[in-house]
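[Discussion] Sanity-checking designs against the backbone

I'm trying to build intuition for which residues belong where. Below is a structure token string of 330 positions. I'd appreciate it if someone posts a full sequence so I can compare it with mine line by line.
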């Protein structure tokens, strides 16, 4: 039963070097802390600690073995989305990162799959890069932010991307970035503890109530970190549609069909919550995830799934079957 981790990030030193030549003012730079961690600085903003496995492939393989993960789906780091940069520069950086992810997949066949990063502030460029990443590089979809510099995912300008993703059958992983309410979450690491799942929830609501999922019935969207607050509050959304006029502006029927379209990863860090998620949405819509290499991820994801009170067939679906189907892998 091979395990496929749908949610991982990578930024190798080779990629950093190429980005430094392409965009020296904003490119990522590493400052070692010790043998296991570094400070990652991007566009003048430091992130710490950045674990060695994020940039060292041999360490990554060792960590995969310890976590019982057989295959990782590689995506870029949220720090290198570059949504706040000039569109042409962001597109060049996305192209470079996608080429590097494809290079890793080719070099380590059977251990890695890849999904693209896109210049979301330029939706037609994003659509074109998604097409290239799938047709020319063999990547399986894309990871996009939960908003684009404060614009929600139902922004009409994003229609070229949604149309391309649907036409391509591309997998879309929505990852929090630039989270809402950050000014009230500066203490206690609340920007991640609450902010990340909150912004995923806003993104999901925008896709539902903005009519994106209605207009694109074949779109495949995964919400990370167990879907934020979506599984727990889905009933509230349905109730609100029935009793209020505002949720009906773009969707003319109750939102259950679109809520039933989302996929989720397993990153919930606790058995009761993960079992609730699977019971709520079904084992066919939950995929193994770790958020490797970040400290808010987990190296226990495979063992957590194996410990669930589920039928073996359902565990197999979460560990690999759902990912194989969603990514179109034989």
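Best answer:
Here's mine. Compare freely.
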């Amino acid at each position: 039963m091979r395990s496929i981790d749908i949610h991982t990030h990578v930024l190798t030193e080779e990629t950093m070097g190429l980005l430094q030549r392409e965009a020296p003012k904003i490119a990522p730079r590493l400052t070692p802390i010790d043998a296991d961690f570094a400070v990652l600085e991007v566009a003048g903003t430091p992130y710490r600690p950045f674990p060695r496995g994020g940039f060292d492939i041999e360490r990554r393989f060792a960590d995969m073995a310890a976590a019982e993960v057989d295959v990782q789906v590689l995506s870029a780091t949220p720090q290198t989305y570059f949504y706040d940069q000039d569109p042409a520069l962001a597109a060049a950086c996305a192209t470079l990162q996608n080429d590097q992810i494809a290079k890793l997949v080719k070099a380590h066949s059977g251990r890695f799959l890849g999904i693209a990063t896109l210049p979301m502030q330029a939706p037609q460029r994003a659509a074109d890069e998604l097409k290239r990443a799938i047709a020319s590089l063999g990547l399986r979809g894309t990871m996009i932010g939960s908003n684009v510099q404060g614009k929600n995912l139902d922004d009409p300008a994003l229609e070229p991307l949604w149309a391309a993703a649907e036409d391509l059958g591309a997998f879309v992983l929505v990852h929090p970035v630039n989270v809402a309410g950050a000014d009230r979450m500066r203490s206690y690491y609340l920007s991640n503890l609450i902010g990340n799942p909150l912004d995923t929830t806003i993104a999901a609501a925008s896709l539902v109530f903005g009519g994106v999922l209605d207009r694109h019935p074949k779109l495949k969207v995964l919400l990370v970190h167990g879907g934020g607050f979506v599984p727990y509050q889905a009933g509230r959304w349905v109730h609100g549609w029935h009793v209020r006029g505002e949720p009906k502006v773009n969707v003319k029927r109750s939102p259950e069909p679109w809520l039933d379209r989302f996929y989720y990863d397993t990153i919930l860090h606790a058995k009761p919550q993960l079992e609730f998620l699977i019971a709520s949405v079904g084992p066919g819509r939950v995929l193994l995830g770790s958020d490797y290499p970040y400290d808010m991820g987990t190296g226990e994801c495979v063992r957590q799934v194996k410990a669930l009170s589920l039928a073996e067939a359902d565990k197999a679906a979460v560990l690999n079957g759902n990912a194989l189907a969603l990514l179109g892998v034989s």
